[in-house]
Amino acid sequence: MTAALAGQAQAKGGRWRWLPGDHHVHTKYSAKPDTLYTVAQQVAAARRHGLSWLAVTDHGGPLHRRHGARQAATDIARARQDNHDLVLFQGLEWNVPAGEHASVLVAPGRDELEVLTEFERRFDAVVNDTGASTRAHRQLATEAARWLGAQIRRGRVAAGVIVVNHPGNSGSYAPSELRALLDSETSMVAALEGGPGHQAAGIPATIGGAGRGRCGYDASPGTKSHPGYPPAAYRTHGGFDWAVATVGGLWDALLAEGRSVAVTASSDVHRVFGDGWSSGGPATDDGFYPDPVWTGRPALGHGDFWPGQYSRTHLGVRDLTHVSVVRALQAGRTWVDHGRLIDAVEVSVTGSTSLAPVTLGGVTAVEAGGQVEVTVQVTPAAGPNHAGVLPRLRRVDLIAGPITGAPGPDTASAADTRVVTSWEIGRSAQPVRLRHVFSDVEQPFYLRLRGTDGQVSAPGSDEPRQDPIGEVDPWSDLWFYTSAVFITVTD
Fold first, then answer.
1. What is the tens place of the pLDDT at every residue in 134-152?
2. Burial state string for 109-142 with b = 16 or more CB within 10 A and e = fewer than 16
3. What is the pLDDT of residue 14?
4. DSSP code, position 16
5. Cα gap 61→424, rounded to integer Å
6. Residue 31 has what pLDDT?
7. Could you please report the per-residue DSSP string of 404-454?
8. Rg for the chain, CA atoms, rounded
9. Which of 18, 236, 281, 364 is a Cys-bridge partner for 351, taking CB atoms 3.0 to 4.6 Å apart?
10. Is 80 exceeded by the pLDDT of residue 428?
């Protein structure tokens, strides 16, 4: 058993409540002048689209640190009082030193706001001008995760987690830098935003869209980019980051080390495609942020969906609390979907030496030469999505690869990871039960799942297509992904 797996929490027994949410939305308090909406608008949208938890993660920066964070805290406190059935976080979109962006979430405690603003003051790259890719700045990023862990141990906040946002957008995270962040503080950096926001950005400009790369992935390598990434890494594939969408890619390389790195999806909502809101103006010198103004005219060139309208991250929790949400992300009890492709997926894995099955994020054991049984139940969508279309799941893939231990620090592939089996689902409207048995197991391995509506694939394969620039209908290319389950082998 690897050291990473030895410390991994077991997800055994009982039934989890799988509740959808969004870890990455913006309000008018963001430091960048590209976000319109109030906290109340984002909360109302999340509830309207069926979410159970939501994180306001405004951009870090000097104006946000001085004014926006405190003004948002007042609005969030009011929204919490008015929406007891929604777990609402005040977080931060952290400008990572020498990196890109990450969602920082803390469970409320006696110093919730103070911890966030102190974190921003100490470690935000825009606040401190630490964005350049230097060794000192990379060390500052890992120090930030350790500092946050120390505040939790001191009881200032109840729990915390960091999700690496749109990891491949600019290529600025070398694999070694991701590994350093993951290693910085146990379970603090816990997930990759495999399904980035801005999913409407690829809608053609001729019909009012932004005409960009899907998710805004239309950049080329820059001075901060890791030179080892191929051109495909700078584009999404079926709406997912190359690191996650590629079988045997960077995410699989991390999983093959025995790292429980969860997958998430978010809206990253700044301005919603086709809505009628306009900016109320920039923040004033004294930090006042005006509310957006309703025009009634559909806005052109916006690339986002509302929270839960298109992207959802489902977490396995026992109860609905801030701490439970954080713990589920840390444990890897997550699955994500686009366009409400399915209503539910339940994964149960049993090793021949285990007393009970485990689910996503869990670890089970098998004796050498034994077998592992995987049972999957998928519940198709019962009704139309927010495009007015009833999506149909056509195929589910079971992906697995050996746990090989730590490779070189910039290894970005896992050559032995593959699609083990695929199930054609057809047009069933009833829950579908799938089963696979791994026999004669001799080596530790992990497994994960994905599924698709099957409308779009890469030429000549069943893999996700690289999304073209400005020519994407996001509702006709839908996928779900699960986090991993790990299997160890005993003598």
1. 999 999 999 999 999 999 9
2. bebbbebbbbbbeebbbbbbebbebeeebbebbb
3. 52
4. -
5. 48
6. 78
7. -----TT----TT-EEEEEEE-TT--S-EEEEEEEEEE-S-EEEEEEEE-S
8. 21
9. 364
10. no
